[in-house]
Specification:
The protein has about 100 residues and is of the alpha+beta class. Helices cover about 30% and strands about 35% of the residues. It is built from two helices and four strands, in the order ββαββα. It has helices spanning about 30-45, 85-95, and strands spanning about 5-10, 15-25, 60-70, 75-80. Strands 1-2-4-3 form a four-stranded antiparallel β-sheet. Strand 1 and strand 2 (about 15-25) form a beta hairpin. The longest helix is centred in the middle third of the chain and has 18 residues, at about 30-45. The N and C termini lie close together (about 10 Å).
Length: about 100
């Protein structure tokens, strides 16, 4: 990963959070989105059919925010809610 660095946090309810933010100029936005798609494709391939609210027993869910800002900057935030199994596999793949 060139643009995204994921940070892991955990909570008292056994739901882990993996979050990355990338802020780039518009010219680099496509490259950031390619990385996002790479990560999402991995999640769907490895944990297909297990996406949904983690608190309901699913392995993972995600939120993707894209904000176009002043001066031609674009901020992309990708956040995963994850089970321990998903977080461990994710870190093994993308660490």
């Amino acid at each position: 990963m060139r643009y995204q660095t994921f940070h892991l946090t955990d909570s008292s309810d056994d739901i882990l959070t993996l979050e990355a933010m990338a802020s780039t100029r518009e010219a680099e936005h496509a490259a950031v989105m390619a990385e996002v798609e790479q990560v999402l494709a991995w999640a769907r391939a490895e944990f297909g059919g297990r996406q949904g609210p983690v608190e309901d027993g699913h392995a993972w869910d995600h939120e993707l925010l894209v904000q176009h800002e002043a001066g031609g900057w674009v901020t992309v935030t990708l956040t995963f809610s994850a089970s321990a199994e998903f977080a461990e596999a994710f870190q093994a793949k993308f660490a």
